[in-house]
Specification:
With 113 residues, the protein is mainly α.
């Protein structure tokens, strides 16, 4: 059975290592390379994991940041298969340490008196 693959998107981290801490810094650099994104599209590209990404945009990011595609996109096992094994064993998947990604916030309960 072939394992299902997923990925982690590291654009925000790579930008930070290059001294870019604002999405507004990225937008004009993308435009110079022919990638015209709105401010909200640029923000989502940096903050969220993109489901679809054009190769032109990916190549512009690689050029702007002076990095490789491997630094931006990290292939990982699908979350569903990892969660299933963690739920069965009662802990993290074999060979995996519990990381920040395994922690989930608790829902706040507001009580009015």
């Amino acid at each position: 059975m072939t394992p299902k693959l997923d990925y982690r998107w590291h654009l925000r981290e790579v930008m930070a290592t290059r001294g870019m801490f604002s999405t507004t810094d990225l937008r004009p650099l993308l435009a110079e390379r022919g990638v015209d994104l709105s401010p909200s599209q640029t923000y989502r590209l940096v903050v969220e994991r993109p489901e679809r990404l054009s190769l032109k945009t990916l190549m512009a990011l690689v050029d702007i940041l002076g990095c490789t595609m491997d630094e931006l996109i990290e292939p990982i096992a699908a979350a569903g298969s990892r969660r299933r094994s963690a739920a069965v064993s009662g802990g993290p998947a074999p060979g995996k340490d519990a990381g920040l990604g395994d922690l989930r916030p608790k829902r706040a309960r507001i009580v009015l008196e």
